[in-house]
Design a protein that fits this description.
heterodimer; A: 152 residues; alpha+beta; 5-stranded mixed sheet; 15% strand; globular; B: 265 residues; Uridine Diphospho-n-acetylenolpyruvylglucosamine Reductase, domain 3; Enolase-like, domain 1; 2 domains; 11 helices
């Protein structure tokens, strides 16, 4: 079947199988930041924005995404660059595998709530699993970024 | 993983219903639970073009489209004001925001899953399932109907003079609940709905008028014991029947005391 969607600002038309998942479509179109993790819709590794809302691309048919606007980390480099250095400075990136999903969901969080409390950060990012860091590094990094904005 | 031969965005409820009469076809809902299964689906029926993704509120009721996501429920000011945040508390620990942006109330209610926070919470309200062919059915009744080939159009919550409370016990945030406890006081009548027993939610009303003279430590304890005595629990990898029964007492007692104080955080 034919679909058309907007991927990182560019209109894409393709012929797909009915059961193709959005994650496989995105990787086929060069968005390799989108990774397959748990396969049970739990880890957040495959997070992308659909119409500016974070979703799990491993759990959505690309057919359903037809007509919608999809953003991956490849299309949000500038927005991500504002805070990823703060996370790296805290040593939160160890193996780095969870990082793209974390960054995507952090972008969604900061768009919805530009000045979150620590509890609000923990709640919003609860669907992103990290097996290296225990989450404190990510939290410290985001907090450091938010504090730096207040100090400007 | 399931395999799907054909994908159709239904353009009318009649089209969705007609397609759904064939056993090999499935309405996909949010697709999160469906994806965890296996097998072959001939036609995946998607309701996403039917405008069922809104929550409408008037003086009498909330009308919640089948495609409304759990995240919409979590953030809806009217619904959470009416339920003392019980709806938000019921869904906020269901995996993560990304998951809740996909999972739908229609899929959650249709599945009638034992672990469902959504079913447990909405059973505590004066809720109805609007089925395309069968019409309005009380949720407390629908929860125990056999699966058929009808489809959920909306969930209706009728407003009343009411107060609600929701709490659950989880091994950790984002996990399935070990036990879930929704409490309501509708027009003066208290009811406890217990989910994740681990079977489908069951409810117990205060038919012995334990709380008739008001809530204090003794009446809250007595009602909690009454609920625990009247709800059958079972064991699975998350907890034993005995542990669940103990948790029912604790969550019911705490919840009832919170309802007295009006603190539903």
């Amino acid at each position: 079947m034919d679909i058309q969607l907007t991927l990182n600002g560019k209109k894409i038309t393709d012929n797909i199988d009915a059961d193709m998942l959005l994650i496989d479509f995105l990787r086929k179109h060069g968005c390799l930041s989108v990774k397959r993790g748990c396969e049970t819709a739990n880890c957040g590794l495959c997070t992308v924005l659909m119409d500016d809302k974070p979703i799990l691309s491993c759990s959505m048919l690309v057919a359903r995404a037809s007509g919608h606007n999809i953003k991956t980390l490849e299309g949000l480099q500038e927005e991500a660059s504002e805070f990823v250095g703060f996370i790296a400075d805290q040593g939160a990136d160890q193996c780095g595998f969870c990082n793209p999903g974390f960054v995507m969901n952090t972008i969604a969080l900061l768009r919805e709530n530009p000045d979150p409390t620590d509890d609000e950060i923990r709640a919003f990012l609860a669907g992103n699993l990290c097996r290296c860091s225990g989450y404190e590094g990510q939290l410290r990094g985001i907090r450091a970024f938010l504090d730096s904005k207040k100090n400007i | 993983m399931v395999t799907i031969q054909k994908y159709v965005r239904a353009q009318s409820l009649e089209e969705a219903y007609t397609l759904n009469q064939t056993k090999a076809n499935r309405i996909i809902g949010g697709m999160l639970w469906l994806k965890m299964g296996s097998g072959n689906i001939n036609t995946a029926i998607d309701l996403c073009d039917l405008g069922l993704n809104t929550i409408e509120e008037n003086d009498e009721q909330f009308s919640i489209g089948a495609s409304v996501t759990l995240r919409q429920l979590e953030l809806h000011p009217g619904l959470n004001s009416y339920t003392n945040n019980a709806v938000c508390n019921a869904v906020k620990d269901i995996v993560g925001v990304q998951f809740r942006n996909l999972a739908t109330i229609g899929g959650s209610i249709w599945g009638r899953y034992g672990f469902s926070d959504v079913l447990t919470c909405f059973m505590a309200m004066d809720s109805y399932v609007e089925l395309y062919k069968a019409g309005l059915i009380p949720l407390k009744e629908f929860a125990y109907l056999k699966y058929d080939n009808d489809l959920i159009v909306r969930i209706i919550v009728k407003k009343a003079h009411a107060k609600f409370h929701y709490s659950s016990m989880r091994a950790q945030r984002t996990d399935f609940p070990i036990i879930a406890c929704a409490l309501s006081c509708i027009d003066g009548k208290y009811t406890a709905v217990i989910g994740a027993r681990p079977h489908r939610a069951r409810y117990v009303s205060d038919n012995e008028n334990i709380l008739k003279d008001g809530i204090d430590d003794a009446s809250a304890d007595a009602f909690a014991k009454y609920v625990a005595d009247n709800i059958k629990t079972g064991s699975n990898s998350r907890g034993s029947a005995e542990y669940r029964t103990h948790l029912i007492k604790v969550l019911t007692q705490r919840g009832i005391l919170s309802m007295k104080e009006g603190d539903n955080k």
